[in-house]
Amino acid sequence: MLKILFKYKKIINYCLISLIVACSTSCVETIVISSGIGAGLAYREKTVDDTRSDIKISTKLGFKFIANGLKNIGNSVDITVNEGRVMLTGIVRDPAKAKLAQDLCWQVKGVNEVIDEIKIDETGKLKIKDFSSSLFDYLLTAEIETKFALAKDLRTLNYQITTVDNDVYLLGVALNDKEMKRAIAIASKVRGVSKVINHVILADDSRRTK
After folding, report:
1. Nearest Cα residue to 79 out of 52, 49, 112, 54
2. 136: in domain
3. Would you tell me how many other CB atoms lie within 10 Å of the CB of residue 3?
């Protein structure tokens, strides 16, 4: 399916612009998160309290980001939270907005680490490609999630995947180094992925919340 979409990418780019404008890049994250939270409560290593805390952090940051112009078409910063570790991804057109996103994170109780992966578009201009790229980022994320789910040697729900401009970001917890390398290898082999940025930690990492 993904191969076909890449083949007809130019046509799809223009046909789906209105759809992408309507939801912007932040809707991609919402779809991914909502598909995993319910099932994840029963299987993930972290406790239910940790999960509730992550949801609260994400919700509070979401409101703060909207109020401060960090969740719109021009500047769209996505929030991924795992055990108090906040990963920021997306694209802004003003470096000051990226700094503001970091500062807002530290204002929220329960945040113990902020990972800044925000991209800055120095041209400051919004392009048609920006909208269509969001669709392909979502498709890449969906394909990687499917491959993770089919891999018997991965605890799929311990990983969160975000894609921005064909770069894949991994956040979560791996049982051991072997599992972590396996996750990176699977993601990197998906067609269309430019690179994989790994922020997965091991189960015995001291940064994990107690």
Report:
1. 54
2. yes
3. 8
| Sign of torsion over alpha carbons 164, 143, 16, 21 | negative
18-22, 53-57, 157-161: least confident range: 18-22
Q: How far apart are CA 12 and CA 14, in angstroms?
A: 5
- At 185, list the tokens: 């290898």
Mutual angle of helices 26-43 and 128-150, in 10-degree steps: 20
210 within domain boundaries: no
Specify if 134 maps to a domain: yes
pLDDT tens digit sequence for 137-162:
999 999 999 999 999 888 888 899 99
Please report, as a single letter, which amino acid is at residue 112.
N
Distance CA(69)–CA(33), nearest Å, equals 22
Task: Decide if 208 is inside a domain.
Answer: no
In whole angstroms, what is the distance from residue 88 CA to residue 82 CA? 12
**Predicted confidence (pLDDT) per residue in 86-137, tens digit:** 999 999 988 999 999 999 999 999 999 999 999 998 776 666 566 668 889 9
pTM for this structure?
0.76
The tally of domains found in the chain comes to 1
Contact criterion met (CB below 8 Å) for 89 and 164: yes
8 A C-beta contact, residue 5 and residue 12: yes
Identify the domain containing residue 129 by its residue range. Answer: 2-202
